[in-house]
Amino acid sequence: MVDMTELQNEDTADLDDDFAYTDDIPEGIADSGTELYEHRRVVADSGQNPVRVDKFLMDHLRDTSRNRIQKAAEAGYIQANGKAVRSNYKVKAGDTITLMLDRPKRNWEIIPEDIPLDIVYEDDQLLLIDKPAGMVVHPGCGNFSGTLVNALAWHLKDDPRYDPNDPEVGLVHRIDKDTSGLLVVAKTPEAKTSLCKQFFFHTTRRLYNALVWGPFSQDEGTMTGNIGRDPKDRLRMAVFPEGSETGKHAVTHWRVLERFGAVTLIECRLETGRTHQIRAHMKHMGHPLFADERYGGDQILRGEQTSSYKAFIRNCMELCPRQALHARTLGFRHPVTDKEMDFQSNLANDMEALIAKWRKRTDSDA
Prior knowledge:
By secondary structure, the protein is of the alpha+beta class. Helix content is 21%, strand content 27%. The chain contains 8 helices and 18 strands. The strands form 4 sheets. Strands 7, 8, 9, 10, 11, 12, 15, 16, 17 and 18 form a 10-stranded mixed β-sheet that branches. It starts with a helix and ends with a helix.
């Protein structure tokens, strides 16, 4: 039996959106000075036999995993009678167990908003969206309106089968706020189950284009390494050794498309789909995405130190002020007809202009 909560969290997403489909259990470290807010409270009844707190919470919280509860305990977010406890704490009769987070609890309803959508394909089971950079996919911390989900709620408001607040329909996967490109949305529970399984079992076909810093010595290769939250910065992901207990298995196949000296245009094929997978893998390889502020790509990492070159880079980053990443190709099997479907999106205008600027400079230097 495939766990649907795992399926829905499988693909790349903003860290602010991490908990859209599961309980809000972070993986960061709760600093002693951090104000915490109660999100869950469970009181053990009088007949409770001693049991580990992680197992106790597994029996009382929906849509989460024991691993996530253990990480929350390790980070200081699980309390027993007002004091932080580890996952091996034994819950006793009358204990009050609380899940505390570093932000207030907020329950929200998805409100339809009349926001334009670039719909690439639509039928009675699904639709394909070409998402612009800058649009948040799902409501999360600091983004409770103006998202792709709000736009979908408006677009499908006359479809009696589609409830934007029902997790059994809607987004099948997500991409980062500042990544442009293709997303698939399920209109029915049956379509979502089928598509989620395809993502989970890696039978979908996904190609991304990225402009990254630095030259490659080879024309193609594969990056394998677990991806998990960076212990030094919870807003970033980091790469850990393959097979380690930290992070999740991740594989990115890359291929050089065009070389511009200081930067390179590459194609990435995702074998897995982890949070910030391409961004974290490329950073680990020494090739941060161009203009990717979170992973250090917004600095001049290659090239001259002349004033004219610095001005050129500054102009490039003004032209494309976000990580240069575009979800260009998406392929899958139709959930009802079983037909193989493949879609392609043109590069976003800002990325197209950025590449053209580098191409012109390279041709001029040659």
